[in-house]
User: Fold this.
Amino acid sequence: MIGWLAGGALALAALGLSARYTWWRLPRPGVPVLMYHHVGDPPPGSRLAKLWVAPESFARQLDWLSARGYRTLTLSQALARQGGDQPVVVLTFDDGYADFYTTAWPLLQRRGMTATVFLVTGELDGANRWDQDKEPEAPLLTRRQVLDLAAAGVEFGGHSHRHRNLTTLEPRQLKREVVGCQKVLTDLLGRPARSFSYPYGHWDTRVAEEVGRAGFDAACTTRPGKLTPQGDPLAVPRIIVKRGDDALDFRLKLSRTRSRL
Assistant:
């Protein structure tokens, strides 16, 4: 009877583990492109707390990657990469929050790592006005900080000019959002930006074509998956990292792109 109860408890535990973690999914080939927003603690009243990865969690994730031989590449470097045995990963940050400069970058720099940051060019030196119905005001990177980071090897890409849902815009508005974003980045950095990230993850063929015409070689979605040579560079899948992810979540996401159902 005791053995039967123990066996039942183990079966229930295994069932619970399978419901919580998708360890049973097969690993997927390709380069993982991780998506972050904030590294820090969410302010009171935040409805997007899941997007604030704690600094200590971020540091542990970087150390886990380093311990397993991962090399960080920018998105442009990953797209241009030809083979190689060393595992690589791309770390991307949407919106361009100031906490990248104050919190995330010191942790990356200490470990010799790099990243790609997508900027909302119309709000540089400002704050996240596009989502203040969900989130208290959070400062964005300044132009001076962007230049300092770019000189240190951080790649900067576009995240539109005003962080609007590009799929809802008329052709002229869409062009302003995408071409205007590229112009600000080119003027600031002294060269065209090569990478882009669709605001809110919303995109379609029309939007992708406009992004390509503006001179961006690659654009990131929020669709789970990995970067592969066969994939569309204007529809790069990514793996979101959330505040509630534990160590097993992170490991499963790296290999399987998802850790939960």
About this structure: Helices lie at 2-20, 55-67, 75-80, 98-110, 143-151, 171-189, 205-213, 247-256. The longest helix spans residues 2-20.
